[in-house]
Amino acid sequence: MPVEGLSINLATVRQQWDMRQAVDACLAQGITAIAPWRDQVAKIGLDEAARLVANNDLKVTGLCRGGMFPAADPAGRAAAIDDNKRAIDEACTLRADCLVLVVGGLPETSRDIVHAREMVADGIAAILPHARAAGMPLAIEPLHPMYAADRACVNTLAQALDICELLGDGVGVAIDVYHVWWDPDLARQIARAGAMGRILAHHICDWLVPTRDLLLDRGMMGDGVIDLKGIRAMIEAAGFHGHQEVEIFSAENWWKRPGEEVLATCVERFRTVC
Amino acid sequence: MPVEGLSINLATVRQQWDMRQAVDACLAQGITAIAPWRDQVAKIGLDEAARLVANNDLKVTGLCRGGMFPAADPAGRAAAIDDNKRAIDEACTLRADCLVLVVGGLPETSRDIVHAREMVADGIAAILPHARAAGMPLAIEPLHPMYAADRACVNTLAQALDICELLGDGVGVAIDVYHVWWDPDLARQIARAGAMGRILAHHICDWLVPTRDLLLDRGMMGDGVIDLKGIRAMIEAAGFHGHQEVEIFSAENWWKRPGEEVLATCVERFRTVC
């Protein structure tokens, strides 16, 4: 029986399986939507990944990830732009709904977050013509402020939407509850994103108390404190009715369990607490 | 030679010394401003702590901390209010510039951060008459969003200032660079806080890359990525020229070093990078 509306970001089972194995396991549990990471695609080859998608009629809710625009020198920034164009092409080959952008943090030795943010807007502007020509939407994913220095200096939905307004069509947002659940302005910004027609993805997991690692201690839906149903209601009221994509990095828990158990738990929690 | 404008939050040397020893060590290095925690005061006794302050003519830039207002039941909320009133009285006895409020996170089993935020505003409102009568300013400290669940659901300066506007005189903000440096709205909100006359404290440390622990891996000024001089300029331009208070929780580094070395480093960095 297919599980309607659920997508599995393959980072959730990256320690257990390669992309081919993960797809087989998803299909075995009725999951027909996925979101792979570029390294997972590269490992089996882009052509083989595209065949897996086409032959199994998979929905690809996003490709992770482009971004990482700020760099200390022009050569670094140019290299990032080239890599992002390749990522756009890969997303097209995989028929992904969007290319997710984790925009990057401060360049080495920099303390100038304002400048880093300018480099992000400039970088997205530079790849946007390529994305538009390819018909591939770019999804800026605001990351939790605890990643501002080293992963993404776009840290709120408001900030991401300001960039969308600045740059025009072809760019929107990926809303990951882990990154935005704390935001006092969340309800207003989700409504704004909907009114702008910019919601491209809805990622779910949970915030654990305590959280033991800044990166690799995300929780399974229902095990933490995020009001998943409440945020889902905001996103649906804003007009987005796409898949909820589970993305869990969990070095000490879910990555150590059998992949089948992880997927079965995702399905069960998706049906009960999301 | 006195170190003008530097205050040491005694949490910075809490593993090395009790309050009496910390005061002696500060004075030996020309540091005449401190901010103790209530448990440090309690350990030597409030009267003795007050004598230390008076006899040495110490500036007390704040008492840490009141707050922790949200609770699952009315009895819990009432207990928090009583405890905050005692904290106000202690801050008066110590002639502190303000009582710092770490407002609290989600009550046990709650996923309703909107309600927790209402409980915070209600709690501050409940203690404000006592604080006003005592002449003790309350300093809401917005905490980094990574503490939204378990320590403070006030996570931006904007949010703290909204509460100040709601409640009127007697309440302001403590601006800790560690908690706010990432905020895209920082410059505007610091200017707003200044225009409102609400800046009560300026805390400093640094954000390390990587940060290895959510709570106890703060960096010494200059060792991380925060634009300390830039934020100081914003705060001074907003009209606050009080002490910069060093507050470093560092289980694996500074708490393991000799206290004299920690203080000497604080002085040297204060003079060069802050």
TrEMBL record, chains A, B:
Sorted UniProt keywords: Isomerase
Family matches, as InterPro entries: IolE/XylAMocC-like, Xyl_isomerase-like_sf, Xyl_isomerase-like_TIM-brl
UniProt xrefs under SUPFAM superfamilies: Xylose isomerase-like
Domain of life: Bacteria
GO MF, one annotated term: isomerase activity
Xylose isomerase-like TIM barrel domain ranges (all copies): 24-256
PANTHER family, sorted: HYDROXYPYRUVATE ISOMERASE, XYLOSE ISOMERASE
Name this polypeptide is given: Sugar phosphate isomerase/epimerase
Originating organism: Chelatococcus asaccharovorans
